[in-house]
Write a structure and sequence with these properties.
The model is unreliable at about 1-5 and about 615-650 (pLDDT under 50). The longest helix is centred in the first third of the chain and has 23 residues, at about 190-210. This protein is α/β, with parallel strands linked by helices. The strands form seven sheets. The protein has an eight-stranded mixed beta sheet with strand order 1-2-3-4-5-6-8-7, with helices on both faces. The chain has a seven-stranded mixed beta sheet with strand order 11-12-10-9-13-14-15, sandwiched between helices. The chain has a seven-stranded mixed beta sheet with strand order 17-16-21-18-22-23-24, with helices on both faces.
Length: about 950
């Protein structure tokens, strides 16, 4: 397959796996001389109509000359790509470079004719659209900037492929043929189209795994016990609505049934199609099982078998082969080493996992890479899934194991428009593609809450993705910027998830606190202050409070316009008037139901009965035997509590927490998320600056890079490049001798600063390597002598002279290009705040005006910029403009891989950049702008 070409080596990097519109996969690769038989076989399966549309005339078969032309390419001026499933062609595309006269040409001609042919059985699957993305990327790589295509007017499907792609195009009609011409540079619309197709395809691929019409368990044991037999039992117990098959090649030939399920020795023996295969055989037998599944047309696999990347280098290679093998047949994989998948929808009821019990149906989606964490999440939700009006359960659950194929990104694509999922909870041991995850998370979080526990692990073993070089804390900050609710433990994950699934989002940080314990109320008050909320003074109802008292107090708090959320605290009470647990639960529910726009949380201490009452699925009414605890003496003027009945559809559930800190932390996350949702509605804009010389900067960068692959610019070059973007730096003149220092100071004008710039002294004013406000030559020479006496010879300390800047707050601005996450802009105060305490804020580039404003205010030491303790506020508007200009620089020119401005002294009026460094290098590949592909192996 990978034979040498006529002019170039086989371009293996053009090979790619793609997800098609229906969720299946295909392999795209260059066509070579070894593909002659495949091409002929493919062409024989194309209808006469499709052949006519391709060649504009009846063309029943390919001649030897045709086969030679369509399989011999130079991979520069003539390129052919094929989409394959099971090793056989299902579609082809080719381009031929042409000149202005329309004849075959070579570079520098930058136009090519393009033509497609798709097997009729695979039309409508999005194959041509995927091929167009890939052939366009290949053409751009080879210097081709435009495609031309001639299409018969009746070939509406192919015309639609071109017109829907989103490229800028021209259309003409001549000699009975539609001629389309379009540029190949990605446009905003073409990228949007590509990402919309990606979302639909990846969502469908996950949907096929979660809602199969039939399931085969491959590796079902003949005797009870074992992984396969357990999964089969779990599927049966869950009431799976589709067909089930038990498969094991060791079954006796006369065995027809196992536990009431049809039994077969091979998937091939099943009479009907199989949508999903759960593979639970030893690792050395998995490939054989995958082959059988692929040949039978199975759509997807859940591989529970272990012994892959988690076991070392041999297992890592075994895992790569597994993925390659499955994708060759158009199948996607969850696993290997997976715990399984669950779908609680009444139309599916799928428990293809090792979980012995089906979780409660609900609105929460769960994703966990770790099986152990998946078990813990399911267990905690099962224990705490109750609410005043019913239960909060799970919609879908995926435990991906080694995450060799289907990843959290795929699941996000599915959850984004899944009508059965309102909240997404994810445990991620690592994020293999932060750039894509951040993009998908931002879109998902704008529609529904996304709560993530992020481990500090590396990329999954065997997963060929570029690892991020960003610190764990920086990645976390970028996730928060994208609207992700970042928590640290699975306890916090469940706490936040239950609140978000049950209650409306708060409109602000003001919290009312009421309950029957003054101490617990004060603990809740302190917890609110610690989390940045604004609590109102707690209302103590005393331990004598009845259910009616709770109801009335909660109703008043919810009606108060100065309150955005309510936390109810409850402890056990003794006395005739103290409410029963179920009665109290109904009192809170009925009060909250009357004001459904504000969230309500309950903190209960040692009230197991209340927690049980909050878990009542159909009614919160106390049982007959508990009736004596209900209150009968309603005070004058008070309305009796409504009779406890099942809550109407859509009524919010009230989550209960065993500790004030946990409830308040969950509420604080909801407040921050609600604020992000409001801000995300108007993300701002990337401003234009008339004084930016983008073209001049590009020419300067190109000239500098011509010297080598990567370099740190000198002072003059740095100042020139930054100046093209309106960033002025204060000149620092080297002073290798006292006399040269005096001449530099005279040229700049007194007062000046004298600085040691050796690496161990740079930006370390605390070490004494800086002399400020040097007023005259005598003081300058004395300061020079002091520095050399303290720190060494001039050639060791590298002294410079710089004009004094207005006094202000020292800050630092950085930008870096990360190979996985992309360009990141960072800001903090210079010195100990950023270096010792790590007080830096981060945003993904390009930064909007609103993001620049929030970036400055995101650091803990931000009050120093706004007049802390009576100091003069500094010019934050000038600082925001500087951040936006740096963002534009690295966004416009990805060759600028690192920028550091330190210190940037922000004064009450204006700012001064006193130090700057810029590094250039060939930019890392932007896989988010290229054609759709699955991770390679």
């Amino acid at each position: 397959m990978q034979s040498a070409s006529d002019r170039h080596e086989y371009p293996a990097h053009w090979e790619a796996d793609v997800v098609l519109r229906d969720g299946g996969t295909a392999r795209i690769r260059p066509i070579t001389v070894d593909d002659a038989e495949r091409l002929v076989s493919f062409y024989e399966q194309v209808s006469d109509e499709s052949k006519y549309y391709r060649f504009f005339a009846p063309y029943p078969r390919l001649s030897d000359k045709d086969v030679h032309r369509f399989t011999h390419h130079d991979f520069v001026d003539r390129v052919g790509l094929a989409a394959t499933v099971g090793g056989e062609f299902i579609a082809t595309v080719r381009y031929d470079r042409i000149g202005a006269d329309g004849m075959a040409a070579s570079a520098p001609a930058d136009e090519a004719e393009v033509a497609f042919l798709v097997q009729d059985a695979h039309q409508g699957r999005g194959v041509a659209s995927a091929l167009l993305e890939h052939i366009a990327a290949v053409a751009r790589e080879r210097g081709i900037r435009r495609f031309a295509a001639e299409v018969l007017p009746a070939n509406n499907k192919m015309i639609k492929v071109f017109t829907d792609a989103g490229y800028t195009q021209k259309r003409s009609f001549e000699d009975g043929v539609v001629r389309l011409e379009f540029g190949l540079e990605p446009t905003e619309r073409s990228v949007a189209v590509q990402r919309a197709r990606e979302q639909r395809a990846e969502a469908h691929s996950v949907g096929r795994l979660l809602a199969p019409g039939s399931v085969a368990v491959v590796g079902t044991g003949r005797s009870p016990g074992g992984v396969g037999r357990s999964v089969l039992g779990n599927l049966r117990e869950a009431g799976f609505t589709g067909r089930l098959y038990a498969v094991n090649k060791a079954f006796p030939e006369d065995l027809k049934e196992l536990d009431g399920v049809p039994a077969h020795r091979s998937v091939r023996d099943t009479a009907a199609p199989v949508d999903l295969a759960v593979v639970a055989v030893p690792a050395e037998q998995v490939l054989e099982a995958v082959t059988e599944c692929g040949e039978h047309g199975v759509q997807g696999l859940v591989v529970l078998s272990a012994g892959y990347a988690e076991s070392g280098p041999d297992g890592r290679e075994r895992q790569r082969e597994l993925v390659r093998h499955a994708r060759a047949y158009g199948m996607r994989i969850i696993g290997p080493n997976a715990f399984g998948v669950i779908n609680t929808s009444p139309e599916v009821r799928l428990n293809a996992s090792l979980a012995p019990e089906m979780p409660r149906p609900g609105r929460i989606g769960l994703f966990a890479q770790s099986g152990a964490i998946g078990i813990a999440l399911l267990s905690r939700l099962h224990r705490r899934g109750g609410g005043v009006t019913g239960v909060t359960g799970v919609s879908t659950f995926i435990s991906s194991g080694n995450r060799a194929d289907v990843s959290g990104n795929d699941v996000l694509q599915y959850w984004y428009d899944d009508p059965d999922t309102d909240v997404a909870l994810m445990y991620l041991e690592s994020i293999g593609n932060p750039r894509k995850f951040t993009r998908l998370a931002r879109r998902t979080a704008a529609a529904k809450p996304l709560v993530v526990v992020q481990g500090a692990g590396s990329a999954p073993q065997g997963h060929a993705v570029r690892a991020t070089r960003l610190p764990h804390a920086t990645v976390s900050a970028l996730l928060r910027q994208a609207g992700v609710i970042r928590v640290d433990t699975i306890t916090e994950l469940v706490d936040a998830g239950l609140l978000l699934a049950r209650q409306p989002l708060p409109t602000g940080p003001r919290v009312a606190i009421l309950g029957n314990s003054e101490s617990l109320g004060l603990l809740t008050y302190d917890a609110c202050l610690s989390e940045g909320l604004r609590p109102l003074p707690p209302l103590d109802l005393t331990t004598e409070a009845s259910a009616q008292d709770f109801h009335a107090a909660l109703a008043r708090a919810l009606a108060d316009e100065t309150c955005d959320a309510v936390v109810v605290t409850a402890i056990p009470a003794i006395g005739e008037r103290s409410p029963g647990d179920a009665e109290l639960a109904e009192a809170l529910r009925s009060a909250a139901a009357a004001a459904p726009a504000k969230p309500v949380l309950v903190v209960h201490v040692e009230l197991g009965g209340l927690a049980m009452a909050l878990s009542a699925a159909t009614s919160t009414a106390p049982r007959a035997e508990a009736a004596p605890r209900a209150r009968t003496d309603v005070p004058d003027g008070a309305q009796p509590l409504p009779t406890a009945v099942a809550a109407p559809e859509g009524t919010h559930l009230i989550p209960a927490y065993p500790a004030a800190e946990r409830a308040v932390r969950a509420l604080a996350e909801a407040v921050k998320y609600a604020h992000w949702r409001r801000e995300a509605a108007d993300a701002g804009k990337v401003p234009e600056y008339e004084d930016i010389d983008e073209k001049g900067a590009a020419e300067l960068i190109g000239g500098l890079l011509a010297r080598g692959q990567g370099l740190t610019l000198g002072t003059d070059e740095t100042c020139e490049l930054l100046g093209r973007y309106g960033i002025r730096t204060r000149r620092a003149i080297p002073a290798p001798t006292p006399d040269e220092a005096a001449r530099a100071a005279a040229a700049l004008g007194y007062p000046v600063a004298l600085k040691a710039t050796a690496p161990h002294l740079r930006h370390r004013a605390d070490l004494g390597g800086v002399r400020l406000d040097v007023a005259d030559e005598e003081q300058l020479r004395r300061s020079y002598a002091e520095l050399t006496e303290l720190f060494g010879k001039p050639e060791e300390i590298r002294p410079v002279v710089q004009a004094m800047a207005p006094r202000g707050v020292d800050t630092v601005v950085r930008a870096v290009i990360d190979p996985a996450a992309g360009a990141v802009l960072s800001f903090g105060l210079a010195g100990a705040a950023s270096q010792l305490l790590g007080d830096m804020a981060h945003r993904l580039v390009p930064v909007t005006d609103r993001e620049a404003t929030s970036l400055i205010r995101s650091i803990r030491t931000a009050p120093l910029l706004f007049g802390w303790r009576g100091s003069t506020p500094v010019d934050t508007a000038a600082l925001e403009e500087l951040l936006l200009r740096v963002s534009r620089l690295v966004d416009d020119h990805p060759e600028v891989v690192a920028v550091t401005l330190e210190p940037v002294v922000v004064a009450p009026h204006g700012l001064s950049v006193l130090g700057a460094s810029v590094r250039l290098a060939p930019p890392p590949a932007r896989d988010d702008l290229g054609p759709r592909t699955l991770p390679t192996y």
